[in-house]
């Protein structure tokens, strides 16, 4: 026979698992978004400085 609070504990555990999964997806999206936006800015910063210094 199951304890009287087993349904409540299962619901809390399931909610925690869903929250952790959602948080993991959010962090993955934030990391990919940051990398996607920082790469072009990095290229512009590196090659603009280099192009400006190689002129006559």
Structural notes for this entry:
The protein is mostly helical and 56 residues long. Helices cover 86% and strands 0% of the residues.
**Largest sheet: number of strands, sense, barrel closure:** none
The helix/strand class is mainly alpha
Count the E strands: 0
Morphology call: rod-shaped
- As a whole number of angstroms, the C-alpha radius of gyration is 25 Å
Q: Write the element-wise H/E pattern from the N-terminal end onward.
A: H
Distance between the termini: 87 Å
Uncertain parts: none
Helix fraction by DSSP (H/I, runs of at least 4): over 70%
Number of helices: 1
Averaged pLDDT, please? 84
β-strand percent reads under 5%
Brief summary:
The N and C termini lie far apart (87 Å). With 56 residues, the chain is mainly alpha-helical.
Topology summary:
Layout (H helix, E strand, L loop, with lengths): L5 H48 L3
């Amino acid at each position: 026979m199951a304890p009287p609070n087993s349904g409540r504990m299962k619901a809390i555990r399931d909610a925690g698992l869903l929250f952790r999964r959602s948080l993991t997806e959010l962090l993955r999206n934030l990391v990919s978004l940051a990398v996607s936006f920082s790469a072009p800015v990095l290229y512009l910063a590196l090659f603009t400085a280099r192009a400006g210094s190689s002129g006559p």
